[in-house]
């Protein structure tokens, strides 16, 4: 197994759409992504990432033996949070449970801490997203507390958990 992160390429639109066109994934993300999620949607996302400011957006494809299996990104915040960044990620369902996202989280955090002045990377999974919470913990993130009734997703009020990794 060789999990890596690399910059997006337009040709990744096929693999991205194939992996993300799944309600089990979309139900664990913020709103705003369409379902069905098409190759056109994937291309728009990739173009947006490639033209984004590379000083504050760190978006990568997750690859397994060169094949794109998912997405991970770290997004710098602003104002007093300008040295804080939010991380998000997902991989295709057929790849779940193999430690792949844990490995991608470790790699992207290393990249961000080595190449920017960011001092804190956080993630806010839904409290019921056990796999995401576990991956964060395995990657060294600290659980900082539960944000009660922090979102409404698919009509349900949900708690979220705050996890963070701070620069040592
Ligand atoms: C969450 C997600 C990214 C995890 O990716 P992954 O590559 O499967 O994660 P890993 O294999 O690195 O780690 C998952 C861990 O959770 C554990 N886990 C998964 N489901 C679990 C459950 N229901 N109960 C207990 N542990 C569970 C796995 O066993 C593994 O831990 P282990 O290595 O100690 O056994 C993936 O499931 C996904 O893309 N989900 C949909 C999108 C999403 O939730 N994105 C994150 C939004 S915050």
Overview of this structure, please?
The chain is α+β, with helices and mostly antiparallel strands and 168 residues long. The protein has a single domain (3-123), classed as 3-Layer(aba) Sandwich (Aminopeptidase), CATH 3.40.630.30. Helix content is 29%, strand content 34%. The protein contains five helices and seven strands; from the N terminus they run E-H-H-H-E-E-E-H-E-H-E-E. The chain has helices at residues 13-20, 23-26, 39-50, 100-115, 130-138; strands spanning 3-6, 57-64, 67-76, 84-91, 120-123, 142-153, 156-166. A seven-stranded mixed sheet has the order 1-2-3-4-5-7-6, sandwiched between helices. Helix 1 (13-20) packs across helix 3. The longest helix is centred in the middle third of the chain and has 16 residues, at 100-115. It starts with a strand and ends with a strand. The protein binds coenzyme A (COA). Coenzyme A (COA) is lined by residues 25, 28-29, 89-91, 96-102, 123, 125, 129-132, 134-135.
Q: Going by CATH, what is the homologous superfamily?
A: Gcn5-related N-acetyltransferase (GNAT)
The count of helical stretches stands at 5
Strand content: 25-35%
Total number of β-strand segments? 7
Mean pLDDT: 98
Question: What's the number of structural domains?
Answer: 1
- CATH third-level topology: Aminopeptidase
Q: List all distinct small molecules, including ions and cofactors, that are bound in this structure.
A: coenzyme A
CATH uppermost class = Alpha Beta
Largest sheet entry? 7 strands, mixed
Radius of gyration: 15 Å
Proper CATH architecture: 3-Layer(aba) Sandwich
**Residues in helix, %:** 25-40%
Low-confidence parts lasting 5 or more residues at pLDDT below 50? Answer: none
